[in-house]
Structure of Xanthine permease:
Amino acid sequence: MTDTRTGFYSDPDETPPLVQAVPLGLQHVLAMFASNVTPSIIVAGAAGLAFGGPEQVYLIQMAMLFAGVATLLQTIGLGPVGARLPIMQGTSFAFVGVLAGVAATQGLGVALSACIIGGCVHFVLGAFIKHLRWLFPPLVTGLVILAIGLYLIPVAIKYAAGGAAKFQMEAESFGSLMHWSVALSVVIVALILKFFTNGTLSNAAILVGLIVGYLLALVLGMVNFAPVANASWITSITPLPYGFEFSLGAVIAVTLVSIVSAIETVGDASATTKAGASREATDAEISGATYADGLGTAIAGVFGGLPNTSFSQNVGIVGMTGIMSRHVVTIGALVLILCGLLPKIGAVIASMPLPVLGGGVIVMFGMVAAAGLNVLSEVEMNRRNMVIIAVSLAAGLGLNLVPTAVQYLPGVVNTLATSAVAPTALVAIILNLALPDEI
């Protein structure tokens, strides 16, 4: 119902007038746009796809298109699927480490096939997610999110310096003042807008920073518009663009991250109802949100999209505006679908020089790590919990940084052991169950 004292819409089924609803929907898109397309760019690069090439453009389009589709599953729903809350879906950073590693070593066919299977498992989790929450207290989820951020930060630095692949890092231009000037312009603009403005401009700070960095790179002659000119106006969607290739190690790794992603979605659903309606999320809403996560991920994987999850930054918009209408977010979903169907938009994004993207992901990946720390701030820092944090991070990040330390492990186990996220999560869960509470 509408709060007559504030004008806020606390009922998900209500819709503000279009003059309010459309700008609010666009605000939701602006807040998540950069974060949504970045994982596809990174995984495409890890797979060896040409930067700015048609295959990378296609993956970017699928990121936009199926983020919109997954959001519609959340806001409109389909039977038990969907929380029917204003939850914005987008491509998940949580999977980047695992999928980049799989794409680099086994190819995109294996990575996307693992996404399809992982999405199906994620969907099934919706039936009993409430019974698994005890395995993932803030200590475990915070550690996993922190590990994801710490794993990704070196990737951000490589992009900002001008490259990611080995040959690019060996080039004379790698780490040049020009590259860092462009990257830092993105960081500085994003920080200024985030902390010295408010409303839409503040929520879209990273996106505006990327635009400023892009324009600077254009002035410096770093942008190649040839892919934009060659891109068509309407996309053709291809099922299984890289075939279907099963790898047990990849499936296990993606499934483990899917469980963590599901727990995150539970948190986002709860945070949304608290922020917009001052109530707890119902079991049906939590299950529906998880079903939508999994189904959206599986469908995206079929067409070349990466796993989807709820976006926490959009929960902040609900809290800031006080507008709980799910139809506002539906408008944002339709905008994303439109963008996904226009290859010209994907080509413009793909033409973004690496240092521009690097400046953006320095902030984004740092925020992922900071989000993990924020979750851990709820945990009492006694000796038991500090030991769990220390051993879990040492195992997860250590094996990822020195993969030859486990080079003789069989393929499936080796993939999991060096993925950073999987060993961190596994060690944290085991130690949290095994170690006694301090008296």
About this structure: The mean pLDDT is 84. The chain has one domain: 18-434.
